[in-house]
Amino acid sequence: MLALSGVDAGYGTFQALFGCTLEVRTGEAVAVIGPNGAGKTTLMRVISGLIPARSGTMTMQDLDLVATPPHNIIRLGIAHVPENRRLFPRMTVEDNLRMGAYIPMARARFGERLEFVYDLFPRMRERRNQLAGTLSGGEQQMCAIGRALMSGPKLLLLDEPSAGLAPVVVERIFELIRVIRERDLTVLIVEQNVQQVLQVVDRAYVLEAGSIRMSGSAQELSDNEEVRRLYMGL
Amino acid sequence: MALVIAGVLVVASVVGLPPYPLHIMIVILFWAFTYTGWSLMGRFGLVSLGHGAFMGIGAYVTALLWNYAGMTPWLGIPIALACAMLLAVVVGYPCFRFRITGHYFALVTLALSEVVRQTIIATRDHTGGSLGFTPTPKGNDGTPSIIALQFDEKETWFVIAVVVWLVGLAIWRLVDRSMIRYALDAISEDEDSAAAAGINVTREKLKITMISAVMTALGGALYMQYQLFISPDTVSGIAISLQIVFAVVTGGIFVQLGPTFGAVITLLLAEILRVQIGTDAVGLDNAIYGIALVLFIIFLPKGILGSLIGRFAARRS
Fold first, then answer.
1. How many domains is chain A partitioned into structurally?
2. Do A50 and B186 touch (CB under 8 A)?
3. Complex prediction ipTM
4. CA atoms within 13 Å, Cβ hemisphere of B100
5. pLDDT tens by residue, A90-137
6. CB-CB under 8 Å, A89 with B194
7. Of A153, A170, A198, which residue constitutes the final position of a domain?
8. Domain range spanning residue A84?
């Protein structure tokens, strides 16, 4: 579904990604793990067009992503849940969800998508008229995921969904990711919470200093000595 | 609400007001229209300090076409509006494309208003420079009023001003109820998230800037047709740009009648101070005006009308 090959990217004179190659197949859940500053968020932002790729190729279902402006990426079926939620804080929960269905093809099915999200996150239905900025951290994460789901995406990009949340809430977020997977969505997730994320994905890549260092099935990486020592503290 | 006010105003004019209050009301309505145009951008965090430029273009292009090419304002005004729109695109596109926002955007637009003022002054052979410019009166060659868009009766201008003002409010309402409002609200809160949601940030910002610029230019053109005299200081430059911003902030930037309210308060205040103090203490009227504005901005950040509506809504709930 999504394929990156030899992608370089960065900010100004600083290069953050060096020749990244990865693939996400239809129906899969794939994780990108790695330490702080490895370039994980940059990778997500390159895929969703917020940072241009300097070289390499990126395709989504054989359509070129490199030349696609950010506001058209979502039209190809990629929805991005950014790091730190990045909701529209002074809008209500429902207006945030409405913005998620901004593109015409999603707007036409707004009611249906809204029901889908409210069924998935009943808490959001209760809080529909509350300003998004006043939600708790976990609720904001639900709202951010809900907003992304409103566009009816094929591929969901999740950037550190567990960051800054209490352990109990993190549990719930990972549970939600399992539920989302059951709805036939393909997921690419960036996480530092390695132990837990490897329990919900099929495969993972290890990103270090802007390059892919390792990849394998979730089981293989969970058993890998180096991954256990460096990322799980075991 | 707006229609009720309009009705009262029209009745008042039919009953027959003396020329001076009528003049003040016409001026207030034209400015209210211009302020409403500015607030379309301002409410979404696109703080332009350059709307004097659009106003100047609206006034000067129309007047120059009339005097030098004999072109009726019915054609001259659309051309002037097109010029303002073009300028809005030329300045707005690079700003929005390269993410020049907030203070930086304000500074770019601030420069713009001064560039237009200086251009008018520099081309004094045609524009009259700082001394101002007077459109040829219709009487000189017997052109009918309607072609020249010059009317002797204040009542005619009053009706035009009310209609134009209502059109401004209608545009505000249309924007408020359209998808562009959601898009621009989202952009003002988080540009990246807005783009990721599928909003073409550059295009949406450009759209509202063009609407705002055209409204401001129309305000300038009509003000010129009414006053039959313009100078760079009355329709362009930083002073006019700031006057627009202050008035809207005073009235209320987020409510439909806020800019109108701002026009009433600031123009009446300026007029009363000018008449009362006038030449007794030169500059004192402006000083008091300035202090009053500072107090309004500090203590009523939502504007007078915005705060009143907010308080009323809070009491109801």
1. 2
2. no
3. 0.85
4. 17
5. 999 999 999 999 998 888 999 999 999 999 899 999 999 999 999 998
6. no
7. A153
8. 79-153
**Pair A70, A87 in one domain:** no
Query: Which tens digits make up the pLDDT trace of B11-69?
Result: 776 667 788 888 999 999 999 999 999 999 999 999 999 999 999 999 999 999 999 99
Instruction: Give the whole-angstrom CA distance, residue B153 versus residue B75.
Output: 23
The candidate with the shortest Cα–Cα distance to B236, out of B122, B138, B152, is B122
CB A80 within 8 A of CB A157: yes
Residue B13's pLDDT is 67
- Which residues lie closer than 8 Å to A9 by C-beta, 6 or more apart? A15, A16, A17, A42, A43, A46, A51, A52, A53, A54
**CB within 8 Å of B215: residues ≥ 6 apart:** B33, B34, B36, B37, B40, B168, B171
> Which of A75, A99, A156 to mutate: most B Cβ within 10 Å?
A99
Domain co-membership, A65 together with A84:
no
Cα–Cα nearest to A34, from A201, A206, A160: A206
Q: How many CB pairs under 8 A join A and B?
A: 63
Q: Is B99 on the interface with A (CB under 8 A)?
A: no
Question: Is the Cβ of B98 closer than 8 Å to some Cβ of chain A?
Answer: no
